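Subject: design request, 268 residues
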């Protein structure tokens, strides 16, 4: 992972696609995070990492505009997310949550087609073009031919991939993913993150696996001790936050840097 090159002197820098300023994130009366400033440039893949219960999902939902902050502002391309209608927000931001309560009788293709609703005229039905878009999204997540399967016939990993297909077909400026690799086997974790990385879209995702976060994200936002801040993938920093010893190693075949973890010698 490399830091972006500095802009030439005197050049104009485009404003960030997403800017959050002075956020206080709360669940009811319980404040989870304070004084959070986050910026995401167009085309970046940014990972949100932190210990369990640190507030990653809460922050993600506020940055996606589905939960209001207790204080502070979130802007998409200079426009306050809270000022957008649900339909307009859904045309610009797609959120794939960790878990969703979906009707068991809903079929896979119907689920994926829900991602097209924000772009349809009112009361319009699907057509051949929409069916092709659904099939293409399912093929992208290795689920070709499953459009007619009921959701209750899917494994946990297949449901995750179907939900990602819905997010892909939504075709938004910003794709927000909450733990997208949950329930996935090793191959599909790598395939899914490789797919997301190659979309050419702006992606914000919470990841539990630090090695995958370092490998597939341009940079990280570290959620810890009641706040969130941008962080380089420094093994010492990550190790201190998670209470482990993190050692970078080079893969003997690909040459990529991976992290190995062990218990921190100073943590009982």
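Subject: RE: design request

Done. Sequence follows.
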């Amino acid at each position: 992972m490399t830091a972006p090159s500095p802009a030439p002197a005197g050049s104009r820098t485009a404003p960030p696609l997403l800017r959050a300023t002075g956020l206080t994130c709360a669940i009811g009366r319980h404040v989870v995070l304070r004084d959070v400033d986050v910026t995401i440039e167009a085309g970046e893949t940014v990972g949100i990492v932190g210990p369990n219960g640190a507030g990653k999902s809460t922050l993600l939902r506020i940055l996606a505009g589905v939960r209001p902050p207790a204080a502070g502002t979130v802007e998409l391309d200079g426009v306050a997310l809270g000022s957008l209608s649900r339909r307009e927000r859904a045309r610009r931001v797609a959120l794939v949550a960790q878990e969703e309560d979906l009707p068991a009788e809903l079929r896979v293709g119907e689920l994926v087609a829900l991602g097209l609703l924000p772009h349809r005229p009112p009361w319009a039905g699907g057509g051949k073009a929409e069916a092709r878009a659904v099939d293409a999204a399912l093929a992208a997540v290795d689920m070709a031919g499953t459009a007619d399967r009921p959701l209750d016939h899917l494994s946990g990993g297949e449901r995750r991939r179907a939900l990602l297909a819905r997010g892909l077909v939504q075709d938004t400026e910003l794709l927000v993913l909450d733990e997208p690799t949950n329930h996935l086997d090793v191959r599909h974790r790598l395939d899914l993150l490789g797919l997301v990385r190659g979309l050419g879209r702006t992606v914000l995702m919470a990841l539990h696996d630090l090695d995958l976060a370092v490998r597939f994200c341009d940079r990280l936002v570290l959620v810890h001790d009641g706040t969130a801040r941008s962080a380089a993938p420094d093994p010492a920093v990550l190790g201190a936050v998670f209470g482990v010893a993190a050692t970078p190693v080079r893969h003997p075949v690909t040459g990529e840097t991976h992290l190995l973890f062990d218990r921190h010698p100073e943590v009982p």
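Residues 237-268 form one domain.
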